[in-house]
């Protein structure tokens, strides 16, 4: 294991809000694989083809500085430009609504990150299927802390590398129950773990072919494939169809009324291949769906 840090500096050719670009990788404030410290350094723990690694990223003037530890250090540093959005191309984007045009002017730093890896994103995305964010984040913390190894290097205390496919396959049934993961999500994660080495090709295929490859796994549908694609290869057109919030956000922001998935896709159709980018503009501006009732109560599968 690498004892000292490897370092790489990158000069982005674009305006950059590092916290906003990397924010979608964070699964809750206590995510064991993601931390942002008091000095403005973002820490990521990840699995790579070479093994686990820890990456620390911060701004130093116009430079983005990456330092990395562990067997996966070089792979993480090689992916630094894509990670901070330098490979995100929005040159063909055209705003078809005044609000989107205004948000685009106000947020020139919006970039889509790309980790280049699938597995670490697939597990938390499956965990987020049809449950509250609170439930999903709790399960993610449990799995990382109990079955992921400590992050290499001087990572903040408590950081863990997400569990590998092999580690996931070895989790006994009662531990899944303890982590609050129901049978349907458990089956999807186990099915993905069995073919995880093949699923990594989705990040190379990109776009719809990459999403279609992910959807060959039982239990992984359009929503989950899009959530992975948005982060693994910065898929600007991957719309999270089936999301509880997004159709209402799009509908109320652009039309002043609620929409279902079909209506959302029709409104976003002129923006292809940048439909997800529109949603990021809306979410980045803090636009959310109106609340008309009580919050959905989380279920505790550990008590079943």
Automatic annotation (TrEMBL):
The keyword DNA repair applies. Keywords: DNA damage, DNA repair. One of its GO terms (biological process) is DNA alkylation repair. GO terms for cellular component: cytoplasm; protein-DNA complex. SUPFAM superfamilies: DNA-glycosylase. InterPro entries: Alkylbase_DNA_Glycosylase/TA, DNA_glycosylase. One of its GO terms (molecular function) is alkylated DNA binding. This is 3-methyladenine DNA glycosylase. It comes from Actinophytocola xinjiangensis.
């Amino acid at each position: 294991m690498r004892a000292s840090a490897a370092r790489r500096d990158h000069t982005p050719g674009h305006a950059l809000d590092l916290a906003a670009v990397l924010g979608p990788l964070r699964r809750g404030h206590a995510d064991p694989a993601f931390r942002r410290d008091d000095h403005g350094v973002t820490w990521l723990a990840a699995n790579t083809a070479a093994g686990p690694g820890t990456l620390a990223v911060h701004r130093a003037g116009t430079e983005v500085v990456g330092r990395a530890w562990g067997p996966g250090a070089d792979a993480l540093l090689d992916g630094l430009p894509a990670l901070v959005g330098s490979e995100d191309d929005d040159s063909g984007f055209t705003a078809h609504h005044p609000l989107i045009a205004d948000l685009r002017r106000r947020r020139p730093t919006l970039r889509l990150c790309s980790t280049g890896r699938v597995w670490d994103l697939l597990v938390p995305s499956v965990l987020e299927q049809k449950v509250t964010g609170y439930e999903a984040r709790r399960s993610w913390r449990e799995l990382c802390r109990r079955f992921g190894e400590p992050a290499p290097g001087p990572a903040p205390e408590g950081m863990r590398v997400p569990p590998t496919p092999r580690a996931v396959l070895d989790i006994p049934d009662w531990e899944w129950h303890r982590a609050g993961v129901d049978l349907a999500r458990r089956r999807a994660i186990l099915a993905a773990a069995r073919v995880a080495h093949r699923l990594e090709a989705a990040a190379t295929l990109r776009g719809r072919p990459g999403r279609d490859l992910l959807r060959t796994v039982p239990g992984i549908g359009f929503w989950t494939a899009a959530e992975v694609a948005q982060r693994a290869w910065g898929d600007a057109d991957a719309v999270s169809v089936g999301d509880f919030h997004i159709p209402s956000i799009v509908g109320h922001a652009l039309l002043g009324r609620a929409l279902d998935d079909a209506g959302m896709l029709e409104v976003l159709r002129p923006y292809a291949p940048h439909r997800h980018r529109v949603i990021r503009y809306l979410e980045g501006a803090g636009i959310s769906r109106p609340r008309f009732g009580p919050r959905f109560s989380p279920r505790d599968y550990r008590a079943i």
